[in-house]
Amino acid sequence: MLVMPSPATERQQPRGERIVPGLWRLRLPLPWSGIPHCNAWVVDRPGGDGHVLFDCGLHTEQSFDQLGDALHQIGKKIEETRLLVCTHAHVDHYGQAKDVVDAAGCELWMHPNHRHMTESLKDPERLLEQRVAIGRESGVPEELLQYYREQGGTVQDGVSGLVEPSKDLVDGVEVETVVGTWRTVETPGHAPSHVSLYQPERRLLLAGDHILGRVALYYDYGWTDDPVAEYLSSLDRVEALGARLCLPGHGKSFTDIAGHVEAHREAALGRLDRVEDVVRAKGPATAIEMIPEIYGRPLSKENAGWLISETMCYLRHLERLGVIDAGGDEEHPRWTAKSPAVARA
Ligand SMILES: [Zn+2]
Ligand SMILES: [Zn+2]
Prior knowledge:
By secondary structure, the protein is of the alpha/beta class. It is about 35% helix and about 20% strand. The longest helix is centred in the last third of the chain and has 26 residues, at about 255-280.
């Protein structure tokens, strides 16, 4: 994703704060406009044996010191990390994983569907070609794609290096801490590697980017068949847990998890309705031709990666439901609505 750096402000200083005894939030600065920080969560291990770190922030020149500062504020050190758990392999949650693992000699646990990150680190050329193919599929003109290809090489900013998980964080894997045992719940959709962690006695939910205090939808396009369907069923999974307090990947912790799940569901379904309406009004059309109307704002260098990925996921989901059609050319789809309108489940 292309994002503009923004000037440092007080709000963006690293900060550590206690949520309940034995559990802290680290607020780590992000150099992104509109998303000023991300969270990492620290939970003590039983028996005074160091702590578990859930997520670790984006890698920048200052980020490792900032992580150290935030830990210092709560009386801890990076070297005391015994286990790093990543909710998903996005740069703002996994970016410093290699540095943390190297400094602490700890294990990394993460879901095995992390190719969307790790493959791009192993083979940046291939990632660039994949992004060009997605651009073509969404209707970006060839000369712009050529320019993008020439500008390549910075496609995976924000990661300090490649480290693969020492344990696969799949459904049911448990993490022991002083606030109790956390159980892994796979919640793909936002990313193929996304998991949430649930502590049933205290009804605490470490939700990563699956649900946030303020709804923000994003899906990785091109790694699984239908991220939107995955996301909607992951919302059902999390809702059924009955959690009381959500510890999200960005912003403050919040209660009323059922209300937040519903708000995310409504936003995703509302967006699907909107995409279908625009295809019906404008089709046959490419994603690029429809995005300004779908979102009510023009495409820009800053929002293009995000909006193209999100829109392609909605279009492919509607195609799978039989509501719209790609027009026969898979490499250059021009979308049309099927007539009469097909009711979506
Ligand atoms: Zn994310
Ligand atoms: Zn995030």
